[in-house]
Design brief:
Order of helices and strands: EHEEHEEEHEHEEEHEH
CATH superfamily: NAD(P)-binding Rossmann-like Domain
Radius of gyration: 15 Å
Number of helices: 6
CATH class: Alpha Beta
Strand content: 15-25%
Distance between the termini: 27 Å
Helix content: 25-40%
Strand order of the largest sheet: 2-1-3-4-7-10-11
Shape: globular
Largest sheet: 7 strands, mixed
CATH architecture: 3-Layer(aba) Sandwich
CATH topology: Rossmann fold
Amino acid sequence: MTTISVLGTGNMGTAIAGIFSDGGAQVESIKHSDEPTSFGDIVVLAVPFTALPEIAEKYRDQLAGKTVVDITNTVDFATFTPVEFDAGSGAADLAAKLPESKVVKAFNTNLAATLTTKTVKDRTTTVIIAGDDADAKAELTAAITAGGVNAVDAGPLVRARELEAVGFLQMGLVVGGQMEWTDALGVIK
């Protein structure tokens, strides 16, 4: 049985944990403020992107060998502008900080409401995944689809840059009143 730790218990962390639980995984939800001593096979970082450097430094050894899922959107909420990274994306920056982990980008193009209901209008929600480790992506895909939503592989981790741009665009459309929290930009399967 796949064991999954979700670090973060906000709307996204709760929705993601629900999908994995529905799929039969053993799920542990951890408050961002808690001090975990161990993690599951898959670790979902459902925290603001600004927390990632501290998490990477603090838990580097415990996350070694794990599939680490970055769900963040790299947005400066004070100015509502995207944050640029020398590595190309926030996920690539995280991967550089966790060289012994298998970093995967996923869930950042989804809104919590569409993960909770597992639908966008009359279609099944689809999670877009990017990462360099084929086995990590396959394990994550299996856990997602077992939970009742679709998953598609966008390719290597370098695609996280585009996923982060789509996530930022979607947030802007919602904040601007052009989309609802129950809508989505994404892949229709």
